[in-house]
């Protein structure tokens, strides 16, 4: 099944390729045919009917094309051919098709060019308000496309419409608007058109100085540029315009010099018959005004013949008026009337208001009988023309105002759109910023957690070290305690037992033997104390023990087994039940250590023990009358250090008072209440 599916796909692809291969030659053949038809339609030597036939064929073929850039380009070529053969209605249909198709594809450039073409249609039809509107639309779309050169071109077209309708101030304003765009684009041809037209406007306003200034600027622009299309034709046209300014000023001599300079271009008649016809007509008129009749009326007839062949109505009327004026000056009233009347008739047929007024003025001069009638017609037409011109200027102003309003609304909508875009971008940026802040905050939290974990691990490690140190310190303290207990407790009792048993070496009476046997029993107590130390037990002193009896027993052996006499004095009452067991044990150990030191080093005969209780403290003094010692010279042994450490541990202190030969006094200051 998959094999057949694969085979079907391959066959379809081959079929599609073959269709494309067949279609390509067909499209190429059509394109070749169109190019051939366009060439025939654009040939001025071919009959107008034939040119229109081939243009119609091209239009029929292109109408079947899809709406793309190629078809719209062909439509522009077709429209241009219709315009050249004056088939204006066909031209209008094609132009509207261009605008419609371009709007569907949002082709701004071709929409703009389409409106410019439509403006040319209305301009040719003398519907100047409609022409102005379409040129204005074209300008707007070109600005939208940022094509400032073509935008300036359409502004110049608007200025020409305003000039025709005698809105000279509006035309001047439009031209300066075009020049602002042209400064950006440096389009020399259009800049020339603007300068040239400003010269013409200022001539109509009788501002001849400004007129000459802009005509000369246009001429200098041509002379400075080496590569300028149709440069000689433009130069001849500018020289003709300058000559007309001097002609209007009445300086016909200077005007003639410019006309002749323009006619010096030998190929002008072949290249531009219209400019040639204007030049010889203007030259003939200035020579007429100066009384030079050598080339007259030949120049006027030549101009009339060329204008008539080219269909230049205004130029033909101008030549007839000049002929009428010439023959009037030559006193040939019949020919003067004939040419004047023909000029008036042509002007009325073509509805050329300016030429009608000039013809009426000429007829009022040469037809004396009807002078009043011509003059009344002149006034009436002049007034109606002024009213019509005023209305047209108002219409143009209204169009301009409405266009400005549309531009303002468009700018407002554009600003609103920009505001919405800015707000949206701001919201997006804020959202992104918040996201970044949240992500960064999350990362910071993770970092803090990692740091906290690290700190916790460090703290655990430190606690483990502290615990180890505490264990080590506990072991060390326990070793010290055991050493003290052995030294102060066990050693003290063994010393006392040894001294009591030593009496057997001197006495053998039954009493001494009986006392010795009692001390032998105390060896079992020493054994128990050693066992208690081994198992970290406390001493045998507890809460119910009579502590004064314990102290008395410590010193009783001293009096029985040595020559040292013991005395004890109690000052005040001491509630030993308020003294903690730990303090009692520590005091017992300190007294035992003091007794051992007296026996070993003091060589004393008398030892006294004094106790005195005051508020929360207990003072115990052990004093002997032995040899004493020098505290500064004698090194502190383990026994003395043990006593001081025990005193500090229970919150007490020891004060030693001694001197060589004066005995020794130990004063223990201990807390009466409270625990270690």
UniProtKB/TrEMBL annotation:
Keywords: 4Fe-4S, Cytoplasm, Iron, Iron-sulfur, Kinase, Membrane, Metal-binding, Signal, TPR repeat, Transferase, Transmembrane, Transmembrane helix, Two-component regulatory system. PROSITE patterns: HIS_KIN, PROKAR_LIPOPROTEIN, TPR. Residues 587-674 form the Histidine kinase domain. Pfam families: HATPase_c, HisKA_3, TPR_8. Its EC number is 2.7.13.3. It is found in: Cytoplasm. The keyword Signal applies. GO terms for molecular function: 4 iron, 4 sulfur cluster binding; metal ion binding; phosphorelay sensor kinase activity; protein dimerization activity. InterPro entries: HATPase_C_sf (IPR036890), HATPase_dom (IPR003594), His_kinase_dom (IPR005467), Sensor_HK_TwoCompSys (IPR050482), Sig_transdc_His_kin-like_C (IPR004358), Sig_transdc_His_kin_sub3_dim/P (IPR011712), TPR-like_helical_dom_sf (IPR011990), TPR_rpt (IPR019734). Residues 1-22 form the signal peptide. One of its GO terms (cellular component) is membrane. The chain crosses the membrane at residues 420-439. It catalyses: ATP + protein L-histidine = ADP + protein N-phospho-L-histidine. TPR repeats lie at residues 192-225, 236-269. Its cofactor is [4Fe-4S] cluster. It comes from the Bacteria. Member of the two-component regulatory system NreB/NreC involved in the control of dissimilatory nitrate/nitrite reduction in response to oxygen. NreB functions as a direct oxygen sensor histidine kinase which is autophosphorylated, in the absence of oxygen, probably at the conserved histidine residue, and transfers its phosphate group probably to a conserved aspartate residue of NreC. NreB/NreC activates the expression of the nitrate (narGHJI) and nitrite (nir) reductase operons, as well as the putative nitrate transporter gene narT. This is Oxygen sensor histidine kinase NreB. The lineage of its organism: Bacteria, Pseudomonadati, Bacteroidota, Flavobacteriia, Flavobacteriales.
